[in-house]
Amino acid sequence: MLNELYHSLNPIAFTLGSVQIRWYALAYLAAFGLGGLIMWGRIRHWKLWIPAEDLLVAVCFTALGIIFGARLGYCLFYGNGYYLSHPIEICMFSQGGMSFHGGLVGALIAGCIVCKALRLSFITMADLCAIVAPVGLFFGRCANFINGELWGKPTNVPWGVVFAGGGALPRHPSQLYEALLEGLILFIILFALSRKVPARSKGTFIGWFLLLYGVFRIAVEFVRVPDVQLGYLVGFVTMGQLLSLPLVIAGIIILVIAHKTHAPQSGKKATPAQTNAESPLNS
């Protein structure tokens, strides 16, 4: 039974001396590692000139943006003022508390900076990241399930799970719903779209990602228990739904622009020196 499976799960994957390695940390490592490999595969499939070393730098820098953005986003959106009086705890990542929406903002800021420094197309890199982002969401939500956190509302469905700390009633495994929708299904859709050569217009993938993630997240929030420190904001509206609605709107706008402009995906921009060297006037 699924209930019995949950009770046998340990949030700690293994221990190295006095250091405990948690599944949540491994989920982040798996997401960034596998995501980078998939991005490299799409770059080669689309026949773009983006050096492997530039991709590695971009992935590492964006990863930092995601981690710090996710933590700051949680403290800002879900802290309910707690971290204003306990600012030192913002840096205590081991206590948990990460926000997808904050991680998205952090990724966009970090990505913009690194793309400008490396002379990469920000929109193309955003499209590439959008294709692999569901991989990270899948691993992350599975880790949430292992941790026994972010559970759903009480339910009578056969797959309901009794979570430690969640009372005696079986609950929706909302973490697995999100892993399926925001992770597996969203990845299949975006990866299928990426198989076209030449690649679809700039903005296509980030547009669909924002739109579908927002729709899936809003839907799952109806069976997920809101954070206890916030509860419902208005009626049955949760913070997750409030933050996801702008993503749906932004996704639609980006898709409309991408459809109208038909801007092709592009690789690394040549430096002025390289451009002059390749000019017929210099040959």
Please give a structural write-up.
This protein is mainly α and 283 residues long. Helices cover 60% and strands 3% of the residues. It contains ten helices and two strands; from the N terminus they run H-E-E-H-H-H-H-H-H-H-H-H. The chain is globular, with a radius of gyration of 21 Å. It starts with a helix and ends in a 5-residue tail after the last helix.
Short overview:
The protein is mainly α. The protein has ten helices and two strands.
Average of pLDDT: 89
* Tally of individual helices: 10
The total strand number stands at: 2
| % residues in beta strands | under 5%
Helicity, as a percent range? 55-70%
* N-end to C-end Cα span: 73 Å
Low-confidence stretches: 1-5, 277-283
Within the largest sheet, what's the order of strands? 1-2
Global Rg: 21 Å
Helix-strand topology string: HEEHHHHHHHHH
> What shape does the CA trace take?
globular
